Every structure is written in structure tokens, then in C-alpha cells.
Amino acid sequence: MARILIADDAPIMRELLASLLIKGGHEIAAEARNGLEAVELYLRHRPELITMDITMPVMDGITAIRHIREKDPDAKIVIFSSLGQQKMIADAIRAGAWDFVAKPFYESRVLDVVSKALALP
After folding, report:
1. Which of 19, 62, 72, 83 has its Cβ near the most Cβ atoms within 10 Å?
2. Residue scoring higher pLDDT (83 or 92)
């Protein structure tokens, strides 16, 4: 299927997402603990998709999205965000994210959004 970069500061969230995505037939290209690592790892590994948390140390997800999209306007990014962060989700979509998944999430929602994002031209 696809190589995916997971960007989230919570180790348990990275582990959970990795498990779900692998179960869905995907490969984890890399895992980032903050937005800066996400940008660096994206440029190094060029995965087909990025799952991006918004609130992270060093560099937040919205800033990371902007940096990645400057380097690769076709990058496919899906936001994973806690409920109640609607303004930040809207900012992330404006910055170039394709869609979002609210935390806590259902496995079927994760795989559905990932599948749809990967199907984009």
C-alpha cells in the first residue's frame, strides 16, 4: 500500500496509529515527535502520506504543514487533532492539510480518510 510518516508528540498515539496503519496494509516510513522532525523526515523519506498532530513541541503541526507544502505542494497530509480544536483544524486545512481525524478516533475512520487521501491525484 503506502509509506506513511506519523507525526505526534505522544508515543502512545504514534504506536496506536502505526499499529492501525500496518494492520491496514501500510508501511511506516518514519515517526516524528514534533513538527521540525516531521519536516526533516518528510524531506528524507518522501512518504506518500503524513499523519500530523497539531499541538507539538519545537514546531507545531500547522507550521510544519506550511514548510512541507513549500517544499512539496503535492504532499498529502491528514491532521489528527483533539476535539475542541476547530479553529486550529481550520487553520491546518488552510495551510494545506487534506482532511482531519478527531481524537479519540475509530479505526475505520482512520483507514477511510487515509485511503481517500491516497487516492487523490
Report:
1. 62
2. 92
